[in-house]
Amino acid sequence: MSMINYASREINCKIVYYGPGLGGKTTNLEHIYGKVQPDTRGKLISLATETERTLFFDFLPVDLGTIRGFKTRFHLYTVPGQVYYNASRKLILKGVDGIVFVGDSQVERMEANQEAMQNLYDNMAEYGYDLTKMPFVIQYNKRDLPNAAPVRDLQAGLNPGWEVTEPSRQRVAPDPAHAGENLVEQLPTGEWVEHAPYFEAVAVTGDGVFETLRAVSKLVLKSLA
Amino acid sequence: MPVGAASWSFSQEDFAAITQSLQRFLHDSNARCALLVDRSGQLVATVGEQPKFDPTAFATLTAADFSANDQLAKLIGESDFNSLFHQGEKESMYLADVARRVILVVLFDNRTTLGLVRLKMKQAVDELTKLFEQVFARPQQGKGGAPGLLAGADDEIDKLFQ
After folding, report:
1. ipTM
2. Which of A43, A138, B9, B156 is the most buried (most CB within 10 A)?
3. Could you give the C-alpha distances from A147 to A106, A157, A166, B75, B126, in angstroms and in order?
4. For the segment B123-159, what is each residue's pLDDT rounded down to a tens digit?
5. What angle do CA B83, A4, A97 make, to 5 degrees?
6. A196 near A137, Cβ under 8 Å?
7. What is the C-alpha to C-alpha distance for residues A30 and A59, in angstroms, rounded to an integer?
């Protein structure tokens, strides 16, 4: 739920980083906090346990520039990834404008990734949001680890695509981030599907962190245009 | 826009009316400062003494506080708690729901009393509820509630992210 304040000439949007526990959601925010100019960001708030596991959420406001004289301010939130914190996780989704799913590339985390993705769909549906119709990107984190699954497998498991039924949208849309791949394509079965844009990342070193943030914020602003 | 994500915007006239109502309330209750926060954690307005803390962070935590308490209410069989009170040694805060979409937060110290704040707040909440219901009832033009604001701004958006 974007908020436009004409008095202070600001557009405020909410982006939530979602995903399995220990996947790197907080690390994404910490990297952004460390890299952006201090005058374009607010405080990084972390409601975490003593062992630095997110208990409720992390929060970081960042300004990404001015459009039509309006400051674009993005409120970045993470959710607690651990399964049993679902009640607080769901609360954070209230009024969300864009979602980043941070997946853990490690082979043995595939099940946790899928569970978190399902949980995201379910929680969004409970608010009446349709994930397939809103700004949504996927980040495959920890690409540097030796046990990282191939992107192809992660795509098949987490981003197989949702059906495109509108005839006007049934045309091939190339993925600007990956040459030779498509965001909208026709399967051999004849069915048209759309995939969420995806990015590879190593959040601890910052690789792919800003690409992900840029992609989701651009989608959010375009959804307002 | 996603189904169900009701974007909303308010004009400068709305803002003036909201501010006026809050100023009257602060005067009557002798409270220090009033903040309006939307349920998703965005700060809508601040009236009275400018707070020394980071208002954006404060707004986020307020919305989280209210949401968490809403869930607690449900667990004990209430539909919600429409107000919350946090008492400190010197500074206290009182939070109240407005039109199910916005939270009014009032900061006050020992220059006034909880009783007076509570009494005056009820009146202010009624007034604000009416104001906000008008804002929400107004048809929101444009997909994001931004009437033409970003229409045709695709190039500018692209440029921002180059």
Report:
1. 0.73
2. A138
3. 5, 16, 39, 42, 59
4. 999 999 999 998 888 876 544 445 567 777 777 787 7
5. 80
6. yes
7. 10
| Count of CB atoms situated within 10 Å of the CB of B49 | 12
Structure tokens at A115: 């569970």
Residues 6+ apart with CB under 8 A from A42: A60, A61, A62, B54, B56, B57
- Give B72-75 contacts, CB < 8 A, sequence gap 24+: none
What is the SS3 assignment for A56? strand
Query: Does the CB of B101 have a partner CB in chain A at under 8 Å?
Result: no
Q: Are B55 and A75 in contact (CB under 8 A)?
A: no
Alpha-carbon distances, residue A151 vs A19, A20, B66 (angstroms):
17, 17, 40
Beta strand segments in A105-168, E: 136-141, 162-163
Q: Quick one: closest CA in B to A13, which residue?
A: B42
Give the predicted TM-score (pTM) of the model.
0.87
Q: Which two tokens stand for residue B126?
A: 């009624």
The shortest C-alpha distance from B61 to chain A (Å) reads 9
d(C-alpha A127, C-alpha A90), whole Å: 9
Which residue among B9, B57, B153 sits closest to A42, beta carbon to beta carbon? Answer: B57
Among A170, A148, A161, A223, CA closest to A197: A161
Asked whether A147 and A107 are in contact (CB, 8 A), the reply is yes
Q: What is the pLDDT of residues A152-205, one digit of tens each?
A: 999 999 999 999 999 999 999 999 999 999 999 999 999 999 999 999 999 999
Distance CA A212, CA A31 (A): 12
Which residue from B minimizes the CA distance to A91?
A: B67
Put simply, the answer to whether B146 touches A4 (Cβ < 8 Å) is: yes
Residue pair B47/B78 in contact by the 8 Å Cβ criterion: no
Cβ(A37)–Cβ(A23) below 8 Å: no
Q: How far is B36 from chain A (nearest CA, A)?
A: 13
Strand, coil or helix: B152:
coil
pLDDT at residue B5 greater than cutoff 70: no
Please count the other Cβ atoms lying within 10 Å of the Cβ belonging to residue A71.
Answer: 16
If we measure between CA atoms, which residue out of B87, B108, B105 comes closest to residue B96?
B105
